[in-house]
Amino acid sequence: MQALVIAAHGSHLSAGSATPTFDHADTIRESGAFDEVRECFWKEEPSFREVLRTVESDEVYVVPLFISEGYFTEQVIPRELRLEEWDVDQWDSDGTSATHTTVTATDTDQTVHYCGPVGTHDAMSDVIVQRADSVTGDRSVDDGEFGLAVVGHGTERNENSAKAIEYHADRIREQGRFGEVEALFMDEDPEVDDVTDYFSTEDVVVVPLFIADGYHTQEDIPEDMGLTDDYRKGWDTPTEVDGHRIWYSGAVGTEPLMADVVLERAADAGADVGDAIERVRRETSSAGPAAGD
């Protein structure tokens, strides 16, 4: 038997923070790729610490639903799962290239394939593009007339936070689907507050590389960009700002295609998922905008 555990942050303050995790878990559960699928959280129940004891399978694939390699993926999750054999050097990563390592959970004796975060997987670039396409409706982003801003939190405390954003911006730029592609940040330069300064295209799609919609994506970023002077009043899509039309998508993690990235992470670690990746990609690619958009 093989099980999948999706590890996410969760929130005590935002009731909808865990919704994308449950949605993607349900999609994967319905695919039949795993005998068991479990969700666990840092700030909600079930917790990281207890989740392995809810799993009957001897072989477990753990996929962190996080954007970057850093404190949570390198320290918190392995510690809480009691992966005492774990060492970050086992990932042999430059900050965006972690794949997986296999260790034994100390107290349950399960074989755990601990995967890199979804946010640095190559397939995340496809999710960002689909997210951009879904918010523009009938207007395709493939004509080169749209600019794309991939937005991250950014922090001087962890350089990998910015690396993940820049990595996907570079990959999407190379595809040539957008007229311009820029990586922007909330807490470091170049800042999303000045989004229109970085684009000559009239239309700009802004996709925040966050797992769930919350304070940053629904309050900070819309106000910082000038979409609204009060997030509680909402904003139009698109909104004209400084002569540009800004198409704001909300968190990329709410895009249904994210379930495909989770599956691909597990498959890269050796999980037998059959044709689930192809089926989930096909189904979620035609699912349209995520609920609540």
UniProtKB/TrEMBL annotation:
Gene3D superfamilies noted in UniProt: 3.40.50.1400
CDD domains recorded for this chain?
Answer: CbiX_SirB_N (cd03416)
Which InterPro entries does the record match to this protein? CbiX-like (IPR002762), Sirohydro_Cobaltochel/CbiX (IPR050963)
What GO biological process terms does the UniProt entry carry, in alphabetical order?
A: cobalamin biosynthetic process
Q: Report a single Gene Ontology molecular function.
A: metal ion binding
Q: Which UniProt keywords apply?
A: Cobalamin biosynthesis, Cobalt, Lyase, Metal-binding
Pfam families registered for this protein in UniProt: CbiX
The source's superkingdom equals Archaea
User: Which NCBIfam families does this UniProt record tie to the protein?
Assistant: PRK02395.1-1 (NF002670), PRK02395.1-3 (NF002671)
**Identification of the protein by name:** CbiX/SirB N-terminal domain-containing protein
Query: Organism source for this protein?
Result: Halorientalis brevis
